[in-house]
């Protein structure tokens, strides 16, 4: 129980890591790969929608050109028909000029001549009717082509709205937007000075005064400030007087922390280090094999034809990797505890502080500012048990 509870000593490192990452920006290489892969998968579908719109626009352009050609032909024919024949001038002359009755005042109008019908043969009139029908058909084809373009664009817009992000940047932004509420929630709880978990963060920061690795390079003023942060645990035993006694023993504690210590020699360290080395070696072997397979596949591909675009594979989600015991929270807490065990007899008040650490998990207390539910007698019993275990060690 003591070793598990001693994890509170390194809890501040995990919180500080998240807080620093939020400030600097959290890198998400897996998200970048996944965004590129998603964009590559969506691109052919988007290209198909764009091609459909382009095809409809080409049909519309062809129909418009055909209609314009028919219209130009009609204009030319009408211009030729407007040229009146020579006898048309006589027909249009006043009656006096033609030797007619001078009493006739209204000019005779030959509507057939004006319409050009008198000068056109039946074949010409049939050709004119066919041209009009062709123009009507072309006009309908233009209208249908415009409708096809609008429909293709509407279909593409509906598809885009249903898919959402399309490019790698849009997919990455979408992924970050999904996790952003979690970051905001962490900031609200831990970073804001009025946050619900701000007190426990300060308590965890104070608990780093038990980290022998940090104590080795820590000065007395910094250690004293960490002792003051212990008040946020809200233990009734952490009075101002008790924290003063802890500060009085800080010089001796720092002296012990600065002495050389054989961390690989503690119980269970050799087994952990050997297992970690095997794990890292296996990972290197797998990575080398994957790189060799990729290189072989690339060299065997035909050089004449360009290779298809490579879609980056997003790696499967794995646990956090550690490269030494100091990065592993559980192993680090265990070795720190083993560092303290033979030293608690050197102090009068720090053993009591160590005995309190197993009770510092959120499950053991409520962090709403209320006092701890365990009685002082339970704390003293835990301290006595720790001292007895130390003496036996």
Count of domains:
2
Listing every helix as H and every strand as E from the N terminus to the C terminus, the arrangement reads HHHHHHHHHHHHHHHH
**DSSP strand tally:** 0
The overall pLDDT, averaged over residues, is 78
Number of helices: 16
Decide which structural class fits the backbone: mainly alpha
Distance between the termini: 17 Å
**Biggest beta-sheet profile:** none
Whole-number radius of gyration?
A: 45 Å
Low-confidence stretches: 86-90, 358-393
Strand content: under 5%
Shape: elongated
What is the helix fraction of residues, given as a range? Answer: 55-70%
Structure description:
By secondary structure, the protein is mostly helical. It folds into two domains: 28-97 and 108-195; 197-294 and 310-392, no CATH class. Helix content is 66%, strand content 0%. It has 16 helices and no strands. Helix 2 packs across helix 8 (198-207) and helix 10 (220-229) packs antiparallel against helix 11 (240-248). It is elongated and about 130 Å long. The two termini are 17 Å apart.
């Amino acid at each position: 129980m003591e070793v598990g509870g001693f994890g509170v000593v390194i809890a501040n490192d995990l919180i500080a890591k998240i807080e620093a990452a939020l400030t600097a920006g959290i890198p998400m290489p897996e998200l970048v790969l996944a965004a590129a892969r998603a964009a590559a998968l969506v691109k052919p579908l988007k290209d198909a929608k764009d091609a459909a719109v382009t095809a409809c626009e080409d049909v519309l352009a062809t129909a418009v050109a055909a209609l314009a050609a028919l219209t130009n032909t009609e204009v030319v024919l009408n211009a030729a028909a407007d040229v009146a024949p020579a006898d048309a001038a006589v027909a249009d002359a006043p009656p006096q000029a033609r030797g007619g009755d001078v009493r006739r005042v209204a000019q005779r109008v030959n509507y057939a001549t004006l319409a050009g019908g008198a000068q056109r043969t039946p074949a010409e009139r049939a050709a004119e009717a066919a041209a009009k029908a062709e123009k009507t058909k072309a006009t309908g084809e233009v209208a249908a082509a415009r409708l096809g373009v609008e429909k293709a664009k509407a279909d593409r817009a509906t598809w885009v709205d249903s898919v959402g992000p399309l490019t790698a940047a849009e997919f990455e932004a979408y992924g970050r937007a999904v996790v952003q509420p979690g970051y905001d929630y962490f900031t609200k709880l831990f970073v804001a000075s009025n946050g619900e978990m701000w007190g426990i963060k300060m308590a965890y920061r104070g608990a780093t005064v038990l980290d022998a690795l940090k104590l080795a390079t820590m000065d007395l003023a910094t250690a004293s400030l960490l002792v003051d942060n212990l008040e946020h645990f809200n233990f009734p035993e952490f009075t101002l007087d008790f924290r003063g006694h802890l500060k009085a023993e800080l010089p001796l504690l720092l002296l012990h922390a600065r002495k050389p210590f054989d961390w690989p020699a503690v119980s269970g360290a050799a087994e952990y280090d050997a297992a970690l080395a095997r794990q890292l070696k296996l990972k290197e072997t797998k990575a080398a094999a994957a790189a060799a397979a990729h290189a072989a596949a690339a060299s065997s591909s035909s050089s004449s034809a360009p290779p298809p675009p490579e879609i980056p594979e997003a790696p499967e989600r794995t646990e956090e990797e550690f490269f030494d015991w100091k990065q592993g929270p559980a192993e680090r807490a265990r070795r720190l505890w083993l560092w303290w065990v033979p030293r608690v007899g050197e102090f009068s008040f720090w053993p009591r502080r160590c005995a309190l650490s197993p009770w510092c998990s959120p499950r053991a207390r409520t962090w709403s500012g209320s006092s701890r539910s365990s009685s002082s007698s339970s704390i003293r019993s835990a301290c006595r048990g720790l001292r007895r275990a130390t003496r036996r060690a």
